[in-house]
Design a protein that fits this description.
71 residues, single chain, 2 helices, 45% helix
């Protein structure tokens, strides 16, 4: 039996504003052209705003799941 836990992306306008402000701080720390800034801003905001998705596998007690084998 497998169980999966996911997280939806829902951000308030305030959170998005914070992501944009933080992205601008990061961009300001580097000497970039206007074109580079324009290209990188949405990439950085997306990274800051992204949330991880967690996967859980459920198995009977004592059964080793692939990748969890003890060495």
């Amino acid at each position: 039996m497998n169980a999966r836990k996911t997280e939806d992306h829902h951000h308030t306008p305030e959170q998005v504003n914070d992501y944009i402000e933080q992205a601008l701080v990061l961009l300001d720390a580097h000497e970039l052209t206007a074109d580079e800034r324009a290209h990188l801003l949405p990439v950085i905001v997306t990274q800051l705003a992204s949330k991880q998705i967690f996967y859980e596998q459920v198995a009977p007690m004592g059964l080793a799941l692939p990748g969890n084998a003890r060495h």
